[in-house]
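Supplementary Methods S3. Input chains for the assembly prediction are listed below.
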Amino acid sequence: MTPSPVHPAPERLTLLALGDLPDPEASQVRAHAGSCPECRRELAATATTLRLLRSEADAEAGTERLAEVRTAAREAVQKARVRRRILLPLSAGSVAAAGLLGWALLSGGTPPPAVSPAAPPDATPAPPAPAPVRPAPATGTGPTESVAAGRPSPGAAPAPEAGATQPTPEPGPGSGPPEPVTPPSSVEAAGAEKPAPPAPTVAPTAPATPPAPGPGGPGSTGTAPVAPAPTRPADTAAREPPRFALAASAETSRSAEVTLPGNPATKLDRSEPVPWGSAVRLAPAGDRPATLVLADGGLLSVLHAEARLTMPSGPDGAVGVTAPGPAIVYVSLPVRAEPLRIETRVENEIVSLELRPGSECLLTFNEKGKGAEGLAELSGYAPIPFMAGPSGTGSGDERRECPPGHSVGLRNGRKGKPAMAGAEKAAAELLPLAGLRRLHAKESLLLVLRSAQRARGPALEALTRQLSNLNAETVRRESAGLLDLIELCAREEIAPEDLAEIADVLRRADRAGLDVGKLLELAHHALLLGKRGEELQRTLQEILAKLRRVRGLEGGHRGGGGEKKG
Amino acid sequence: MIRPAGPEGWEALAREARAGNAEAVEALAESLYPPLVNFARRSLGDPGAADDVAQETVVRVVTNLRRYRPGTRFRSWVYRIALNLCRNRATRHRHVTSDGVPEEAVALLPGRERSAGPETLAAERDEAARVRRALRELPEPFREVVTLRLWQGLSFAEISESLGVPEGTLKSRMHHAVRKLRDILGVAPEAVAGPGTAGPAGPIGRGSGA
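Predicted structure tokens for the full assembly:
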């Protein structure tokens, strides 16, 4: 090839040195350089420079670092999958998460839960019902007890109780006349994004919860969806059963709408578990919440508007909560449950709340999805001690932001204002946001009672039953102290006999017109001091006797008026 | 057991990973990280930051595999992510070490024969440090092209996809970058060889993916 007399563009020389010049052109340039000393020098200098640069070799990544990267990648992929499952069902943009309190909104004016003696709590589930879901936790607690007890649910009709003085509060949610409990209707279901564990092993034979015969009918709900089973069938052992199960009829709002994305033809009975990885849409009817009972006894209830819940894709996943607009979701976990991670989308970030066993939280979704602010504000609004942070520390009334990944729980303060007082105030703050009606203290109390009941099952059943017989005015007035006591009982290991004793003393004091508030305070102190068993019994009797004396003295000063015989 | 692969095998791993194969995810991560960390070290000049950026790139790649459209060059996509992260990082942390050549980076340089004497090693380190210093003096757009072409082995077409810059522009940048590096490194044009010498015997700096 005849070398071109014209110097090639300098860029061509560089490309030639790099090997990036196409062949015909490369030959031309090479031929020219062969005959042109200037270009040859240029080419040689470029080549030398490139060689020099190439001598700066790659560094090796350390094996430890590589392992770290592998782990990070694997975990990130897992998280991304969970997030996709949470967010995919919703195209409705961002939602906000926030806040504590307001659980009282759930009860909707239901009068005290009446437990008919004819329908004892299903505390001893023998023979065990066919387990539709996973075996209940070792505690034996779960929705079973509360459901089987035939108590009215927040969404169920109230059961009139003979002898119990029912409050006639201001018209509140659900304070209307009793309505019959609607049998569990089938709900639309469809294949989840990720195929759920095959239903036949868990679902079809789920004990169809018999419809409640009527208001307050004993045993209206029959078996619960989460019944303890001694052993897990071999064919289901390999699969991790769903952690969430839909509540049985009486505990589920009859209006609850459960929709699983995918095939709309599939029907899912409410008593069947919600498969892993599926989404559930819950919408309350009016003031009646739509409730999902966690398999280990927790409660996940949509109080207002509509929310979608995405079940974890596996045992370690988080439940996703999203809502297209303003909504309130109440979550409570029993004491012995596993911590529950709740993920929700806040603007473009996923915020994760780790709910601890024995705690509750309220997720509030506002209109525009400014969740981070909402979370901080609503947490701050709650004038009660609350936990923030993995260590569970932190308290006070100050406005506090809960960073993503930290827990927001709720607990009663030992000396601070009890949760109930905070609940009412927080609820008042929430009203404009959620359009909810004002709460009544007793309704709030009942909700917590139910929650606590799930946590402690039969042990608290008696206490609840006894407390529900308290004078409505007493409950309203002493709701704070009652909640303190209940919370303590729910969190501590207190024997059923002790609880029964406390409840009995309370009932007697109430009927005797004694100072129940003082009694609650002293009983609480006694429990905090670790008094149990006979010692607690003696203390309670002493307290009762003192209160009687005080009452007698007061009566004497007022010129008579002894106590009523309890 | 899926083994890590070279750049030519990345896309296959990515397909596996996207299909939900956890082993493929790890293999892909392991394959991507070493070149990415080198790219980030050269871009940022800070090994610590580079490690973080490389890891972040890997994580973003594996978590966003669904967004990758088959048919486009996977490597380009990966390096685009890495480039963006490097740029973000550089924007946030403008400060560099005094000499711009962290000793840790030099110490980590591989390929040093154990049998080499201390003088050789020191000289090589010195050489490498000089190169890094020179690289740091390049404007960022030039440095990106040089790094991607020379060390990461991307073709100009791939770099064009990564940077969103036409190939012609990239080639010009490359040429100017090499000229500038030549000046910085003090490479004098070699003495004119005889007429039969036709410059370098072969292409220099061709990477694996050119």
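The radius of gyration of chain B is 18 Å. DSSP finds nine helices and no strands in chain B.
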